[in-house]
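FIELD: query
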Amino acid sequence: MYGATHRATLFVLAAALLPWLAASAHHSVLGFDGSHETTITGRVVQLKWQFPHVRFAVLVSRDGGDETWSIESEAPQVLATLGWQPNAVRVGDVVTVHGARAKDGSMALRCAFVELAEGRKLECFAAARAAGGGS
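FIELD: result
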């Protein structure tokens, strides 16, 4: 019914679409405002070291009360290449997180780097190195 040329055309078309489909299936950083850095300091209250992104929550105490911020970082294997280990940040640690705040104004950050209490900086993605994060 279909000739070899038709099948080859469909194969090439499918192969061309696969990278686009894979990229669109993964959420982007477009929901974060990378043009303005936000910095928060607080206590880590939750940590999820899992694929596709390491996520943690930071409790920030302010005059008006406490705020829980959701922090998104890279995948565990990416963080490992940047010097992170699963125990680099633990629940209870006081950290300062620098990153891009959610455009919708919610208490969510796309992490650029984390400063630990002893002063060490951990990059959250490789581009942070060019922007001055990490050590």
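FIELD: remark
DSSP finds three helices and six strands in the chain.
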